[in-house]
Amino acid sequence: MIEVKHITKSFEGRTVLNDISAVFETGKTNLIIGRSGSGKTVLIKNIIGLMHPDKGAVLYDGRDLTSMEKQELNMLRREMGMLFQGSALFDSMTVLENVMFPLDMFSNDTHKERLKRAQFCLDRVNLSEAGHLYPSEISGGMMKRAAIARAIALNPKYLFCDEPNSGLDPKTSLIIDDLIHDITAEYKMTTIINTHDMNSVMNIGENIIFIKEGVKEWQGNSKEVITSQNKALNDFIFASDLFRKVKEVEEEELKTAPVR
Amino acid sequence: MNKALHQVGEYVMLMGKCISIPNRWSMFFKQLIKEIYKLGVDSLWIVVIISIFIGTVIAIQISLNISSPLIPKFTIGYTTREIILLEFSSSIMSLILAGKVGSNIASEIGTMRVTEQIDAMEIMGVNSANFLILPKMVGMMIFIPVLVIFSMFTGILGGIAASHSTGTGMTPASFEYGLQFYFNEFYIWYSIIKSVVYAFIISSIAAYFGYNVKGGALEVGKASTNAVVMSSIMILLADVILTNLMLT
Q1: A interface toward B at CB cutoff 8 Å?
Q2: β-pairing, A55-60 with A2-11?
Q3: A110, A164, A204, B94: which has the fewest Cβ within 10 Å?
Q4: Which residues of A68-86 are buried (b: 16+ CB within 10 A; e: fewer)?
Q5: Is the confidence metric ipTM above 0.85 for this complex?
């Protein structure tokens, strides 16, 4: 479980995150949603320790990241996996070498065992045939899957995904969403996904935090999104005609459903 | 002034982060060999070509400018050798390599920064500066002296080739006598020591500019240019300091 307590972060006098507190549960896909510039990326960077909050604490199963020594932070980071918006695969390495990289750096297993683990991770994301290719030779969806394989190579306890569906077609986005959801349940990870993809919200939103202008505006799950009366959330989620119609149908169904 | 001090501070901190014991020696040596090949061996052809031509031109120009019968012809070989050993093969060649290798390092690391590859390493708990920069620095400090030796050798060969051509007033025998005349072995060591310092300057400054890129492709280009300009200035400054320390 990851808990953020009263996180505040400012840049040159401008408050980007204002007193945000939230709990991200283990074994669930936790989503941070909000408009571009609302502070989602800053929040996730504060959670993973790439930025330091001005105030507040980030607790990883009770361990406060903000007060950790460098050595302790490095140890904690070995329990983290991260999927970046642009995949962030190392250009100079093949897909297999990318997945091997964290194992080569931190695992004490033999080369054969590390290779076996990397192959297993590639199999898990259906990329076993692409191990010899370089990132520039594969599609955007394959790059995301390769990045997921690299992120889970060391069996992390915490998985972070920054805009995992950005630049992908709707079908590939669903595949990536399902993969992240299944892996989270399978390995009992605490997964935090930063997104503004409404399909992801409806598909895998088990715990959703909505941020507006640096403030936590709403928290709930994908079912509660439909019935929420929060105006800012509704304006954001149901901005398109399609989603407004979905909301109307869902609300109608809820009204007409027999009370148990 | 504040900005300059800030940059110096950032550079020192980056070097502090970079110069530490690698997490995995096997990974370090793997990277080191890659870097020696990419930055060093791949630069061999340009060093050889430039050195041959410059060696030839130096010999021809000296020959054309020494018209007095009082100055012996072997002076051409002697002067060519001194120019190549003392300044061309180390300092001028390092300025050329600052353009080729320095921009390569800055743009490679800068691209890794803007595409979040460095962040990905940091998240894994890898000391990205140590993993990315140290092998480049060590590789350059090992291989640039080798390039300098190649440059000396091929530069002098270029001079010898010029002495064989007609119309320059040189004879191969007088040129070769000049090459051997009053030879001071320390000049070779002086050149090699200078090149090790230059290798550190080129790799560390280029890495600093690349590592601290903020923004996108445009900033990577700017960082690459700044890296070449700054390392060229620092090479010239180091040349003055080292020459004063070692030759006076």
Answers
A1: 48, 50, 73-78, 80, 82, 84-86, 88-91, 101-102, 104-106, 154, 160
A2: antiparallel
A3: A110
A4: beeeeebebbbbbbbbbbb
A5: no
